[in-house]
Amino acid sequence: MPQTNNTSQNASPEILIIDLGSQYTQLIARVLRELEHRSAVLTPERARQWLRENNPKAIILSGGHASVNDSDAPQVPQEVWQKNVPILGICYGMQYIVKHFGGVVESKHTSAEYGPATIEIKESELFAGLEINQDVWASHGDTVQVLPDNFRVIASTEVYENSAIENTKKKIFAVQFHPEVKNTPNGTVILKNFVQNIANCQKNWKPQNIVEEIRSEVREKYSDKKVIIGFSGGVDSSVLTAILAPVLGKNLLAVCIDAGQFREGEIEEIKETINSLDINFELVDKKQELENSLKNVINSQEKREVFRKIYRETFDRKTLEFGAQIIAQGSLATDFIESGAVGGGEVIKTHHNIDLGLSAFEIHPLRNLFKYEVRELAKEVGLPERISQREPFPGPGLILRVVGASVTKERLDIVRFADKKTREILAKHNLLGKDNISQLVVYMLAGSLVVGVKGDSRVYDAPIVVRGLKTIDFMTGEGVQFPPEARLEIILELTKHSHISRVLFDETPKPPATTEPE
C-alpha cells in the first residue's frame, strides 16, 4: 500500500491556540512567533481533531465576541482539560474557564470595561518581572462575579476586581484583558512568562531553520532519487518547490495540471516562477478530459472528486514517465484536518492531493505547518510578494465557481473574464490587498438563469456574483461592502460581455457563509 510520510522532522507546534471568535486571535500567534515559538491556531472543532494525535505543552483560549451564557456560545473541546497542560484563557477564554469550573459569569454588563485600563497585580508566575501597576487593553461586557473553587485573584482594576485569576495546582491562568495587543505594553512579557516559564516550551520558530531542516532531510534521504512535485503556483507548492530545488536540481520535476481551472494570466505567472527556480517543468493539458468528465455533474463534492481522479491518474502516469520514486505535496496542517486525515475527523472538504493512493512514495514536508508560517518561509526562500501574499485559491479553482450546473469551457471563460475585470477595477480603486480584501471570489450562478436585455432582445443568462472577504485567519470573515462607485463600475464593465446581463454582490459574513460558494 502506498505510504504517506512527513519528510520534515519539525515537530507539531508545542502551543495550541483555540480561536473562540476574537479579532485578535492571530495577534497571539504573531507575538509568539516574535518570541520564536510556533503555535497552531484552530477552531474548537479542528482543535478537537488535532488533539487526538498531538500533545501540546501549552493551550491558549482566545477571546471572542460571544457571551458564555448564550446557548450557541463557542465551546472548548473536552480534550483540552484531559491533556493536563498549562492553560491560559484570554477574555472570553477566561469567562469560559470560570463557568466550566463552576464559577459565575454575569452578563448584565454592570462592570464592563472597554479600552485602556490599569491593573494592580499580585505575585504570580504569570506576572514575573512586572511592576505592581500595569496598563492593559480591556474589551469585555461579561464579567466574572464568583470564582470557582481553588482559583484566586491575581490582578484587579478600580472597576473590576477579577481582572486575572489562577489555579496553580491545575496550572490554569486567565486574564480579562488582551496581552496580545500593543495597547498592553507588557503583554509580550506575560505571554513569554506563560509559554517559557510556566509551560517550558522551547523556542522553535526560525524560518531559516525550518527551511534548512527540510533540505537536510531531503538531501539525506532522497538526493539520489527522482522526485515529482505538484505545482499550482500557489504559496504552498511554490514554497516547497523553492525549498527542494537547490537540493534536487534536475532530479525534481514540477507538474502542473491545466484543466481550465486557472484565472487569467496565472499560467504565465507559473512559468515565470518555475524559470526563476531553474527546474524541470511540465504543463499537462487536461481541459477537454475534465470537461468530458464533468458533463451533468452539478454537486460541488462530485466536482472535487472528478478533479481529484484526474490529478491522481496524471501523477501516476508522470511518475512512471519520469522514473520518479517520490511524490512531494505542499499540503499543510489545515489540509489534513479538513480532509479528515487527522484524528479520524469529519471530512469538511475533499482535498485533491491528500491520501491519493499513488503508486509512488508520498511525502508532505509542510504538513505540520500553517498558512501564516508558510508565508514567512516564502520570504525566507526569496519568493516575491505576489507569491508570499497570494490569496488562497482552491485546487479545482474556477471549476468550483460554476455553481448549480455542469462545468463547460464557455462557463469557465465567462467566470474568468468576470474575475479579471473585477480585479482590474478593484485594483484601480486600491481595494485589493490584505488590508481591504483578503480573498476575492467571483462566481456564476449557472443553475439560475434570469431575464436580461441585450441589443433590444430578451436573453436568459446566469448572474455573476462578486464576493469580497476580509479576514485574519480565513476561519471567520467579514463580507466586504464595496464603495458605490466601484460597484457601479464593476456592473457596467461586466455587463459588456454578451452573456452577462446581471451582477450581484455577496456580502455574507463567514459564518454562516463559507468563503467559496461550493
Task: Characterize the structure shown.
This protein is an alpha/beta fold and about 525 residues long. It has three domains: about 190 residues, Rossmann fold (3-Layer(aba) Sandwich); about 180 residues, Rossmann fold (3-Layer(aba) Sandwich), CATH 3.40.50; about 100 residues, GMP Synthetase, Chain A, domain 3 (2-Layer Sandwich). The chain is about 30% helix and about 20% strand. It contains 15 helices and 24 strands. It has a nine-stranded mixed β-sheet, with helices on both faces. The protein has a six-stranded parallel β-sheet with strand order 1-17-16-13-14-15, with helices on both faces. β10 and β11 form a beta hairpin. The longest helix has 23 residues. The N terminus is likely disordered.
For the biggest sheet, the summary is: 9 strands, mixed
Shape: globular
CATH architecture name of the largest domain: 3-Layer(aba) Sandwich
CATH superfamily name of the largest domain? Class I glutamine amidotransferase (GATase) domain
In terms of quaternary structure, the protein is single chain
How many DSSP helices?
15
Classify the fold: give the CATH topology of the largest domain: Rossmann fold
Through-space gap between termini: 32 Å
Helix content: 25-40%
Low-confidence stretches: 1-9, 339-352
Overall domain count: 3
Question: What is the C-level CATH assignment of the largest domain?
Answer: Alpha Beta
Give the integer mean of the pLDDT values.
87
Query: What is the strand tally?
Result: 24
Instruction: Kindly provide the radius of gyration, computed on alpha-carbon positions and rounded to a whole number of angstroms.
Output: 25 Å
Give the strand order of the largest sheet, numbering strands 1, 2, ... along the chain.
3-2-4-5-12-11-10-7-8
- Derived structural class: alpha/beta
